[in-house]
Structures are given as C-alpha cells and as structure tokens.
Write a structure and sequence with these properties.
With 388 residues, this protein is mainly α. The protein folds into two domains: 230 residues, Rhopdopsin 7-helix transmembrane proteins; 134 residues, no CATH class. It has 13 helices and three strands; from the N terminus they run H-H-H-H-H-H-H-H-H-H-H-H-H-E-E-E. Strands 1-2-3 form a three-stranded antiparallel beta sheet. The relative contact order is 0.08.
C-alpha cells in the first residue's frame, strides 16, 4: 500500500468518525451552552476535512462543481473553524474585548480570502490537484495558513494548561484531547507552509494522514462525556452482575431491607432492570449491606475464625481468604435465620464496618453458586463453607 492510498483510507475513517461523533452528540451539545461552542468548532473542522478528501473532491467534480470552488469553500470553512477555536477559548475567559478582537480578525481573514478569490489576484488558488498548494508568493495561502496556525497554537497554549487545573474529568480529557488534536493541526499547517516553498518534497501524503488523525482527536474530544457515561454504565453493570447472587440470597433471608424483591434471574436483572443500572447497583449495595448488618445477630462468636481456618485449609490465599471467611460466616448466619434461630447480640464481622463496595464484591465473588439444595463457596471443601 502506498502512502497516498494509506492517506486516503485514513481520511475516509476520519471523516466517518467525525460525522458519527457529531450526530451522536448533537442533541445534548446543542442544548448546553458550554458544549455548543465545541460542537460547532468540530462541525466546521469536519466540513473542511471532508472537502479535503480527494474522493469528495472527485465526487463534487462529477456533480459539476469545479476544484477551485471546492478549494475556496474548504479554505473559508477551515478559517472559520480556526476562528471558532479562538472564540471557544476566549469564551472560557469571559473577556469581552478579546471576543470582539477575535471576531474582527476572523471577519477580516474571511473577507480577505474571499476578495482575493473574487478579484482574481492569484489564480493559483485552485491547482490541478485536489490538495495541492499554491505558489510560494501567494498572499491568499499565507493568510489561510497563518489563521490556522494562530487558532491551533492558542488552543494548545490554553487548553492543555487549563486541563491541569480542572477537577472535572470530562472537561480535563476533552481539553487534553482537543489540545493534542490542535498540536497535530499545527504540524499539518507548518508542513503545508513548508510545502508552499518546497513543492518538490513529497509531504502531502504524510500531511494528509496528520490532518486526518487530527480529525479523530477532534471527534474524541466530543465523545469524552459519552465514554465517561459508558464507563460508568459498565461499572454499574459489573456490580449488578457480580453482586446479584449474594444480594438475592441475603434479601431472601432479610426481605425487609429490599425495596423490591429480586427478579427471576441475574440475566433478567441486567437485560430488563426495573431502574437504571446505576440505581440498581446502588440499591443492591445498600440492601446487601443492610442485610449483612441484620444477619450479624445470627453469627456465632467463632464463626469467622472457623470459616477462615477452613478456607485456608481449602487452599485459598491472599485477598480471597478473608472474603471466603466472610462468605462462610454469612452463609451460616443466613442458614440460622432461615431455620428460625433466635437472634442474639450482634457479632460484628471484620472488614464490613463501612460497607465498602469492594468488600461486598469480594464476598460476592466467593459466594457459593446454588447447586441443587446445597451451596459451596469455591470448590468442595469443609462443611463449614457450605450452606443450604
């Protein structure tokens, strides 16, 4: 595969990723003022990158749009994108005079490019190649490159340091990814400027890959909130799935702690949850802990030590050993509760005083699967680690 073919393929992937990211985030981003500027900035960059792709230029030519018109449109939208980057940065500072200065500069740059094209000062603006540069003396291309360099340099200088001061993880990674994308754009436009003065260098395929990867970073900056939401959903799903057997069995013994009884199966709890997975996970953690506290009234004083010794004899080591001991003691307490034993003074179990989700998940990992009428912790072992 040649560098040009690779650049074309990467460009297609980039364009598709950008448009999908824009479509996915459109609803929420346009409703929130703090995200609207970023979305519009990425939209302008996406249109410019799309019109930079040779296949798109060829498709426009098939529709009767000449290469010059495509190039001029791409350049104007690209400068608009650079201006929106500056506005996006200035808006965060709440400095009105800076905002006015950026708007004036943007209008001047766009007006200059359009005027130079309309009066035909430089007829090299539309070269034969879809991505080819103009001659080194082209004022048109110098204005274009300087506008992009100014916008992307400001993004790198402002976004990265600000990301080091914010405590909002979504904002932190959005700014960092946006700054990295702007860094790649700086590389592209610096290389493009070099290509203006040294057209014999085979830089365009490499520069095309750079600007395409820059587009992927722009798409990623939009999708940071989505990635965070997916991460939280995945964590909640993991909690619901792993904690469900322990939660179900403890709630069966102490039903008063549950807002609603367990569903028929763990799969049903995941595929058809009665509430959001985050709320379901939160509920299971609280109800499991409440049931655990209640069952401490049925724990024999030596139950934990006995279960710990038997778990060690069964070959369990490390973090699995105390978790298995807790599971064994809880299993015995649950059995006592279900058989109608009288409660006594609570016998606190070690390691569960704060109801740590990690502790509950460790116990759930060692909680025995139901096999017929008997339950075993991890493998056939001493009777103390079994419960009905």
């Amino acid at each position: 595969m040649t560098a040009t073919e690779l650049a074309d393929r990467v460009g297609v992937v980039c364009v598709v990723a950008l448009w999908l990211a824009l479509a996915w985030r459109a609803g929420s981003a346009l409703r929130l003022p703090q995200q609207r500027g970023l979305w519009l900035t990425v939209l302008a960059a996406t249109i410019a990158i799309t019109l930079f792709q040779p296949r798109v230029v060829a498709a426009c030519a098939d529709l009767g749009v000449d290469t010059r018109t495509v190039a001029v449109g791409r350049n104007l939208i690209g400068v608009l994108s650079a201006g929106l980057v500056l506005l996006f940065i200035v808006d965060s500072t709440r400095a009105r005079h800076q905002r006015v200065l950026v708007v004036v500069g943007l209008v001047a740059a766009l007006g200059s490019l359009l005027a130079l094209d309309l009066i035909g000062v430089d007829q090299t603006v539309a070269p034969a190649a879809a991505q080819g540069p103009a001659t080194p003396s082209s004022l048109y291309w110098l204005i274009l490159v300087v506008a992009h360099l100014a916008g992307d340099a400001a993004a790198v200088v402002v976004c990265w340091p600000y990301s080091l001061r914010t405590h909002d993880r979504d904002l932190l990674w959005s700014l960092r990814v946006f700054a990295m994308g702007s860094g790649l754009a700086l590389v592209f436009w610096s290389g493009y400027l070099l290509h203006l003065y040294a057209p014999g260098l085979p830089l365009m395929p490499c520069l095309s890959i750079v600007i395409s990867v820059h587009g992927l970073f722009r798409a990623a900056s939009l999708l940071v909130p989505t990635a965070t939401a997916l991460g939280r959903a995945g964590a909640a799903l993991r909690i619901v799935w792993r904690l469900w057997p322990l939660w179900r069995d403890l709630v069966e013994a102490v039903p008063q702690v549950a807002l609603a009884g367990p569903q028929h199966s763990r799969l049903q709890a995941v595929l058809r949850p009665r509430s959001s997975l985050a709320l379901q996970a939160h509920r299971q953690i609280i109800e499991t802990y409440d049931a655990l506290l209640e069952l401490q009234q049925y724990v024999r004083p030596d139950a934990y030590e006995t279960a710990l010794r038997q778990a060690g004899e069964a070959g369990l080591r490390g973090d699995r050993l105390p978790a298995a001991a807790l599971a064994g003691a809880l299993g015995e307490a649950r059995r006592a509760k279900l058989t109608g034993a009288a409660p006594s003074a609570p016998c606190p179990l070690p390691g569960v005083d704060r109801g740590s989700p990690a502790t509950l998940l460790a116990v759930a990992r060692m909680w025995p699967p139901v096999t017929g009428t008997s339950v075993t912790l991890a493998r056939p072992g001493p009777p103390g680690l079994r419960r009905p």
